[in-house]
Amino acid sequence: MLPFSFLLSIPITFNEKHCSRSRFWRAIDEFERRYIYEALTFAFIGMLILLIGEAFLESFGFSRVPGYGNAALMLVLWSVGLIVSSWRRHWRYE
After folding, report:
1. Which residue of 17, 30, 45, 85 shows the fewest CB atoms closer than 10 Å?
2. 2-54, pLDDT tens digit by residue?
């Protein structure tokens, strides 16, 4: 009975998360939306380049980076993207 009730709670949890996320995107203004978009773009492009480099080095016998290392690197790149985006906006519009 417990696994069945757990399976029923998954769509409810997903719907609550989706609604709160859509409310968040409607609530923030255009500046914040562009700020987050630029940071995510920086992180995803940086991660794509690093993963292609990792695959290239792996073909020469280097070991793989663990999944948690990639996730941590993605967070670091996103943080750097936020810093760069904030810095660019501060110096461009002042």
Report:
1. 30
2. 455 555 555 555 555 556 666 666 666 777 778 888 889 999 999 999 999 99
- Closest-CA residue to 70 (of 34, 32, 44, 36): 44
Tokens found for residue 5: 């009730």
Alpha-carbon torsion, ordered 7, 13, 44, 91, to 10 deg: -170
What CA–CA distances, in Å, run from 14 to 8, 11, 22, 28, 94?
11, 5, 12, 22, 42
Region at 5 (left for phi over 0; alpha for psi -120 to 50; beta for the rest): alpha
User: 31 vs 18, 19, 89, CA distance in Å?
Assistant: 22, 22, 9
